[in-house]
Amino acid sequence: MASNLFLKKIFFIYILTNFFIQVLSQHGTVGKPCEVSTDCGTGNYCAGNKRCACLSTYVEIDSYCWKKINPGNSGCSMNKQCEAVWPGAYCRSGECRCANNQPPFQTRDGKVCLNFGFCPLNGNNPKFRIENQVQQCYGGADATCEAIGALAYDCICDSEDCTVNNPISFCCPSRSFACLLPMNEGHSAPGSGGTTLNHWYHDPITGECRELKYQGYGGNANNFQTKDHCDSYCKQTCQRGLPLYKDRTTGVKQEPVYCQGNDGGCNNPNYACTTMGTLQQCCPTYLFICSRNGAIPTEVYNTAGGLPSEYFDVGIPDGSGNTYPRFYYDSREGRCIQFSYLGQGGNFNNFLSSDSCEKFCSRILCSAGEPLKDSSGERNMECSPTGSGANSCPSTHSCESTSGSSSFGGVCCPRPQFVCTLKKEQGSCGTYSNRWWFNAKTGNCEEFIYSGCQGNANNFETYKQCQDYCRDARSEPQCIQGSALTDSNGNFIICGGSSSATTTCPANTYCYYDGSTYGCCPTQAYICSLSAKPGSVCGPAITRWFYDSTTRTCQTYSFNGCDGNANNFATQQDCRDFCRVDSCPDGGDVWKEPNGVPRSCTTNRQCPNTHYCTPVTSWSGTMFQTKSLCCPTKNYICSKPKDIGVRCSSTKITRWYFNSDTKTCLPFEFNGCEGNRNNFASEKTCTNFCLSEACPSGTVVARESDGSRLVQCSNPGGSGRSTSGGCPENYNCYSSPLLDQNVCCGASVELQSLCPAYSTPYISALTLQPTQCTPNVDGNCPGNFFCWFSTTSSSVNAFYCCRSPESVDTGYCPPQLIPVPGDGGQQYKYCSPSAPIDDAIQGCGLNRHCQYSTNLERYICCGLESDVRLPNICPPQPANLVPVELAGNYRTCNPYAKSGSSQACPEASACLYTGNENGFICCRVQPNQGTRKLN
């Protein structure tokens, strides 16, 4: 008696100790904020909402994650640990037991609870039948199911005595096969009134367990009473196909082959070591699944009469007389084709939709990602790895060889540079496993939790696969428009930073830093000079916009989906803003009178309070003209409500708008046309623009060194952060009504140095970058800005839009610039804005600018006085003489030359001796100093 009491105490202490050990091991409460899974602890992972959640092998109990325990196994402390695996199971003496007190039945894939005489799932309904007769198997031997065509079925006994002496056994779908069956609600009994039961099924496409309105009768094995049961049953098995089993032993159920690492322990080319939750098993390869075998070993097929005659398996009639549309992957044609399925049996090359078939089996064609489709969107784009078709793939893809007929030599697979620069995507399903993705910013492969479906191609099962595939990939510089320049191998050219591989960007590109990576990006002038290019076919064509430099308007064109060039915009507004088509400095349209004529102005008082007066350059049809017009303020633009616009294309576009209530940028689906200006291509451009809403045009807000917060100030109108709590050097304090705070506006010292000392660069509020330009092309810069060659920039052809602190229209040249004298003593040198810099007749030369004179109504050359005026080497007497220029140099002459000859001086000038190595030059009276004739 005493000994029994002692044993009971010992057992109680054991149970209590085990309970507390498990409680203490539950690190990380469900719902706790997290950034990465290691923040959550054992049994948890960091879900997409940045909250800790339980892995599929754990169950939540009172906000903690407890390990699920299978029937017949020990280690439980709570009933729910058992019930999550099998409905009604409970914990007794630290062991999970089945609800009916029957011992759990052993299958190849683990122990299950069942009522003897029925299948583990959905009772009698899933039993394998021929001509509506349940077929028997023998002694629990799964091979006896295979012999009658039930290739992926388990032999289930109707009693605990499962031996050859008990012939009453039947075939039920295996775990892998059951979880791939389509949703089937069954049917209701006559007169039942249509009552349904809340059951669950496993969606083989998403890998998620979903609710099933079961009608009470019929249906298939993909039918679970609880979501926990569905999750436990279907998320601890291979994604598709039976795992590799150990060799058969007579009278004993096979066991899965467990492995470690990449293929370690599988020793079979048709299987690969795969992680499923906390297990690693040998699962069929994609090639084996998408083959004629459909992941069924040939020796198994041989027991049922051999492989099917076609590349698909129609299965066995289910007795209903119906056939079901399914899809199989045909390795001969490299695509998925529909076939009629008879309802039972068959193999795993059997998909519910063409899309799920294509997504799954594309892995046997491409090392990562999916092959491109042709213009139909249905068939893979064909290419030839050698010969004339080798270049038929777009630049982001390469032609990869495929097995099959000679007419189908290859498909276009994404290059590593494309795949490895994709962002990490967890997906939205529930079959969680550890995967690896390549972080192009750090250059390393990093582990993450994958949900089991969706996501993207930057997703690898092992670190080695990831590192081998992405070792040469680099982070893609995010250009403002277009793509960064690559070398002949497709690698991005590095133009800045501390890298030893730094190079200089070639003409028509400039070195751009996107916050993490340097790259050579196309200039605005170059992009807007390009013709529309339809690009390479990689799916159905879509409508895009391009800037037509001949008509100076934005037009639509049909884009084939890949390549093309950077003159390619999602919306008309993007095109107009980027290429400055009659555009206000900050985008948007000028204020117009009721008759449609733009309102001219000279001060802000002449504009509505939502607009400001500023010079706007527009194309009149024959020339550029600059007038002062009313343009919308950034505050007005960012205060506009979301407007989805009107449909003008077959697809919607994801855009971003500033929400003035939350003071954040949010995404929305844009129909493609009209709408309003509170419409941005990315969250970054939206945020950049609207945070600078209080800043004068061409200036932006100052941020703290980490870039996450704005510099605040307390004296709007002032500067000098160190003395008055104001702003950094070159910034002024402004009040931002949209943000309800004071902000500092201006440009950094580094950016200020791009322009002459008296001037400031135009900083784009969208990109926070100085605006580049092409010299002698009017309209390249906002009004009162001129195109200036920067001697402090390291970029090739580094011309920037610069302005004077005081924007005053002189009628001739921009502030601080003077007219360049013309040849032959002319007061002005006339020019063409489209002429090359070095054009002797219509060009202006380096650091000189072709500007429109409102007084002369013609284009003239302008420049700094120090650059325009040659040193005056004319004789001091008579007074007020200045040299005559020719092509930017002194005009030399011969004092004895005949008037009108090339060696003679022009009218109103004389050939005089300089007294130095220049000899005789032509001199004239300085303009506005009289017209006295020189003799």
UniProtKB/TrEMBL annotation:
Signal peptide residue numbers: 1-25
Pfam families for the chain: EB, Kunitz_BPTI, Lustrin_cystein
Q: Which InterPro entries match?
A: Cuticle_assoc_divergent, Cys_repeat_1, EB_dom, Kunitz_BPTI, Kunitz_BPTI_sf, Lustrin_cystein, Prtase_inh_Kunz-CS
Superkingdom of origin organism = Eukaryota
For this UniProt record, the keywords arranged alphabetically read as follows: Signal
Which residue intervals define the domain BPTI/Kunitz inhibitor in the entry? 179-234, 313-361, 420-470, 528-579, 638-690
Which Gene3D superfamilies does the protein's record reference? Answer: Pancreatic trypsin inhibitor Kunitz domain (4.10.410.10)
Matches recorded under PROSITE patterns: BPTI_KUNITZ_1, BPTI_KUNITZ_2
SUPFAM superfamilies named in the record: BPTI-like
Q: Which SMART domains match?
A: KU (SM00131), WR1 (SM00289)
Instruction: Write out the GO MF terms.
Output: serine-type endopeptidase inhibitor activity
Q: What is this protein called?
A: Kunitz/Bovine pancreatic trypsin inhibitor domain protein
The organism named in the record is Parastrongyloides trichosuri (Possum-specific nematode worm)
